[in-house]
Amino acid sequence: MSHSKRILMPVLALLLAVVPLFCSLGGLLFARAAVSTPPVLTAPAYILIEQSSGKVLHGHNMYQQMYPASTTKIMTAMLALENLQLEDSITLPDDFINVGETSLGLLPGATQNVEELLMAMMLRSANDAAQAVAIGVSGSEEAFVEQMNARVAELGLSHTHFVNPHGLHDANHYTTAYDLAQIARAALDNPDFCRIINTESCTVHKLNGEDDFEVYNRNNLLTQYELADGVKTGYTKQAGNCFVASATNAEGMQLIAVVLSSENIYDDAQALLEWGFDNFGRTLIVDANTVKGSLPVLNGGREQVAVLTEKPLYFIGASEEAADFAENIELPASITAPVHRGEVVGALTYTDANGDTYSTNLLAAKDVGKYSLKLVVRQSFQSVWQVFVVPFS
Any idea which positions bind substrate (predicted)? Predict the structure, then answer.
């Protein structure tokens, strides 16, 4: 590489780091009619969002403080999957006190498999399974609750506060339809979570060391609505009937509906989801693994590394007009070796005319080791091999 190129590359990267790169991506069209009137629901607070972007499609009283009941277990399951292996086992302490209500009847000293506990918690809504999971993750329910609220803060949510892992009523245990939708959105990024919530039934083996116990999914929307694929129901006297529902259409667009204190959770949720699919669609903005430039590497075996998009981004809308976007690439001026393939090195954000944003990480496309004489010799040998040996093999 020439001396001038060595100077220009870091300068270019620095410009990308501090100056948003704007471009027009016109021509993304939806051949759809104007948005129809939303359905009338029985729930006093509800919301509909698109999963990949988190974009709010419709809502009413979505920031009103409400009680979540057993939809709390979405957060409990997410933390368990982030911190435990499915094949792990959890042994309950001798001072374990079962909170009762809907439960497996777990006893002190019982040892149960994590995956089966999650199935019992998300399908049957077993409160003691949620207690067991909390103990398995954090050592105690109190410590787990701290972790729940810390995760809420990480998600940027400010109207949710948990005091237990199961959702039994407490005046200080609350959320909003908006926050609950965003918690579900994060949980649905986990394939194991999606598989569990869409399971019809599961056997809990040797419950309390004795007989097997069968648990069944209480989410009736899974059989009522063919597009449904989650998530969790809940009920307490104070919360009323609550439901976080998800469904995915043939285009791969997944919607999340939250209905709180509803008189008919399944009809409300299905009406909201169907309205969403009838009125909104998605168009690909950028695919996963798309090259979005390169980054200079300091002290590396390579002078630069390509950067790729981590996931696809979709425009969610109902307009028949072209959608224009501003593209913002955030990269540092350089990165120091070693660089690992898949390492997060920057971010890519598109902003549409309505101010909605669509973001993904930018990842290093290859491993780049530290510069060394040994590395130079090995790369030289590989180059010679490719030029003189491979063509004749």
Answer: 232
